[in-house]
Amino acid sequence: MKITDIQSLEVEQLTTRQAEQAGRSQGRQEAEKPRGDTDVIHLSPESRLMHKAGEVVYQSPDVRPEKVVALQDAVQQGTYQVDSRKVANKIIAELIQEK
Fold this sequence. Notes:
- This protein is mainly α and 99 residues long.
- The chain has four helices and no strands.
- The protein is elongated, with a radius of gyration of 22 Å.
């Protein structure tokens, strides 16, 4: 599964939520100035988003049994149809992304 497969709406909502949380935590951090030799790490909203996307990918199963069963049934019944336009468009999109 690619990270780019995540729904854009979910990514937008996650980004907005993280930006709000970052704003709140930044206000708290300014009030709580580090003392002495304390190290502080600030992660960008993009890095938090990438971390969350990685967690989603890690937790996703490699095989979705409900899809496999549906496809097997369609193939056995002879009703499975390949949309050649979709296949061609996907191949072209993948080639463009590689460049």
